[in-house]
Design goal:
GO biological process, one term: intracellular protein transport
InterPro entries: Adaptor_comp_med_subunit, AP2_Mu_C_sf, AP_mu_sigma_su, Clathrin_mu, Clathrin_mu_CS, Longin-like_dom_sf, MHD
Number of strands: 23
Structural class: alpha+beta
CATH topology of the largest domain: Beta-Lactamase
Main location: membrane
CATH class of the largest domain: Alpha Beta
Largest sheet: 9 strands, mixed
Family: Belongs to the adaptor complexes medium subunit family.
Distance between the termini: 52 Å
Shape: globular
Helix content: 10-25%
Protein name: MHD domain-containing protein
Number of helices: 8
Strand content: 35-45%
CATH architecture of the largest domain: 2-Layer Sandwich
């Protein structure tokens, strides 16, 4: 990476705190940063990388603060940006909110953190859980500095040694969000599943976990091609996963961080049948009133149930005197959103419900612009995945040989889920 120095500036460009890591540039070079940013803005350019002679400024903005890294070398810019964002994350976890006041109140601890997160321009420990073990809010009061935890010098930098729990448990949630766009004529224009495997780990010692999914590539390589499997795309893993092991035999093997984290994310660009189908009929009556008839149908299996379903329908900006009639749930008018929201707490599969709404229209408006906004649907279906992904096994191996309880949940929810009204 080779960053020469890191600065934190206020909104006017005044240096609040800085750290020189390589000593190969004049630290006063930062005086040129703010005029360069303003020049770019006047030109209508917003560039997060600015070249000045043989120096490069790489920066991000957070709550009216600028975090700036300077470099003379041909640095890995993506890594520099990731480092700056990790610094924001670490500071936020220490001070709750990263802003001018929290910087002024915590100079000493920020200098300590800047010393630990980078060494001679190369990122080191940027995991706040590990840093909090030996850089405390009170600072070092002992005459002899405490020994850093093994995680700092260990290959497993995301987990400390000596973790103990009376009850060893693992909670694994597979959460899939459905992005869907349906045209006014009823054809699916865009459908996509975005999934995440989230974990909460409360295990003693240094356990190794192995997760098996019904992965299509694995099933085909082991001669189980006809079994029900899922072809995962754009898979991204947490740093704890052994990538070489996954590439060799598709085994997801890892020593987990302690507590809550996202193990992996994936995407499936498959055709998704709309889980909740919504049709609308809108009738206008000579600038006096407007009537809606909305039909909602659940198109998933009867044994599943969608919870907290919200169907959001846009109404004219000048609508008033709302009246609603529904066969299930309740409806309310939300004037701040220019919408009515039909809420159905429990929507079993294979059901169909109707809602009728009546609004007064006191003024004359451009009818072409009204009623064209898409209907948005929000929902959550527990114990169900659209992709059919399944956890085949979750093995927990620890040298002390304790028994641990793994808990697995599946949840499908809406992402950007829209149905156009035509």
């Amino acid at each position: 990476m080779s960053a020469s120095a890191v600065y934190i500036l206020d909104v006017k460009g005044k240096v609040m705190i800085c750290r020189n890591y390589r000593g190969n540039i004049d630290m006063s070079i930062i005086d040129n940063f703010m005029p360069l940013v303003m020049d770019k803005e006047e030109e209508g350019v917003s560039a997060p990388i600015i070249q000045y002679g043989n120096i490069t400024f790489i920066y991000i903005k957070c709550n009216n603060l600028y975090l700036v890294a300077t470099t003379k070398k041909n640095a890995n810019v993506a890594l520099v940006f990731q480092f700056l964002h990790r610094c924001v994350q670490v500071f936020s976890e220490y001070f709750k909110e990263l802003e001018e006041e929290s910087i002024r109140d915590n100079f000493v601890i920020i200098y300590e953190l800047l010393d630990e997160v980078m060494d001679f321009g190369f990122p080191q420990t940027t995991d706040s859980k590990i840093l909090q073990e030996y850089i405390t809010q009170e600072g070092h009061k002992l005459e002899v500095a405490p020994r850093p935890p093994m995680a700092v010098t260990n290959a497993v930098s995301w987990r400390s040694e000596g973790i103990k729990y009376r009850k060893n448990e693992v909670f694994l949630d597979i959460i899939e969000s459905v992005n869907l766009l349906v045209s006014g004529s009823g054809s699916v224009l865009r459908s996509e599943i975005v999934g995440a495997v989230k974990m909460r780990v409360y295990l003693s010692g240094m356990p190794e976990l192995r997760l098996g999914l019904n992965d299509k590539v694995l099933f085909e390589s082991t001669g189980r091609g006809k079994s029900k499997s899922v072809e995962l795309e754009d898979v991204k893993f947490n740093q704890c996963v052994r990538l070489s092991r996954f590439e060799n035999d598709r085994t997801i093997s890892f020593i987990p961080p302690d507590g809550e984290f996202e193990l992996m994310s994936y995407r499936l660009n498959t055709h998704v049948k709309p889980l909740i189908w919504v049709e609308s009929v809108i009738e206008r009556h000579a600038h006096s009133r407007i009537e809606f008839m909305i039909k909602a149908k659940s198109q998933f299996k009867r044994r599943s149930t969608a919870n907290n379903v919200e169907i959001v329908v846009t109404v004219p900006t000048d609508a008033d005197c709302p009246k609603f009639k529904t066969t299930a749930g309740s409806c309310r008018y939300a004037p701040d959103q220019n919408a009515m929201i039909w809420t159905i707490k429990s929507f079993p599969g294979g059901k169909e419900y109707l809602m009728r709404a009546h609004f007064g229209l006191p003024s004359v408006v451009n009818e072409d612009l009204e009623g064209k906004a898409p209907i948005h649907v929000r929902f959550e279906i527990p114990y169900f995945t659209v992709s059919g992904i399944q956890v085949r096994y979750l093995k927990i191996i620890e040298k002390s040989g304790y028994q641990a309880l793994p808990w697995v949940r599946y949840i499908t929810q809406n992402g950007d889920y829209q149905l156009r009204t035509g």
